[in-house]
Amino acid sequence: MKPESELSDIERQILAECRAIASETMYNYDKPETLRDVITSEEREVVAQEYFRAALQEIEYAHHHEDPPGTPELVLRAIRYLAGHAMPPIRDNTAWFYESLRTLILIALPHTASPKGGEPFFVDLRRGMDCADEWSRQHHSPET
After folding, report:
1. How many whole angstroms separate alpha carbon 129 and alpha carbon 94?
2. How many CB atoms lie within 10 A of CB 140?
3. Does residue 84 contact residue 133 with C-beta atoms inside 8 Å?
4. What is the reported pTM?
5. How many Å apart are CA 74 and CA 105, to the nearest integer?
6. How far apart are CA 138 and CA 142, in angstroms?
7. Cβ–Cβ < 8 Å for 99, 38
8. Which of 65, 86, 121, 140 has the CB geometry, 3.0–4.6 Å to 109, for a possible disulfide?
9. What gap in Å lies between CA 80 and CA 17, rounded to an integer?
10. 79 and 45: one domain?
């Protein structure tokens, strides 16, 4: 992996988001009882770097996707979406991040048709996205 000083602007943004998610998933709400219970900044950084590696893989996938075209910004938006689902019980389970990000990217950039019988799920996805969009608008509105 290239040094941080050589990252592009979008890569720096993605790494910052990965670090924020790692800080959330590795947060210890309980008072540590022993030194083993203390989560260090180095441990958080290891998790953030694993998230970042997964993000780079998805950028590569998006780069080769033609219809619709994928972009690193799409991957950044997916990571920002995942941040709302990051919580301490996840801890250093990087498989959660990888699988969740991969699923979001595959929904946004499908590479195959749905198998027969899978199409009704599209209605469920749209309904869920509309609901989440409405909740976001309410939560982020100027009145709240």
Report:
1. 25
2. 8
3. no
4. 0.88
5. 8
6. 9
7. no
8. 65
9. 7
10. yes
Within this chain, do residues 101 and 139 fall inside the same structural domain, yes or no?
no
**Is the separation of the CB atoms in 72 and 58 below 8 Å?**
no
The identity of residue 44, as a single letter, is: R
Alpha helices (H) along the chain: 9-25, 41-64, 72-83, 94-108, 120-139
pLDDT at 8 (0 to 100): 95
Q: Does residue 107 sit in the same domain as residue 124?
A: no
* Token pair for 108: 């946004």
What is the number of structural domains in the chain?
A: 2
Distance CA 19, CA 38 (A): 18
pLDDT (tens digit, 9 = 90+) per residue, 27-48?
A: 877 777 777 778 889 999 999 9
31 and 59 in a single domain? The answer is: yes
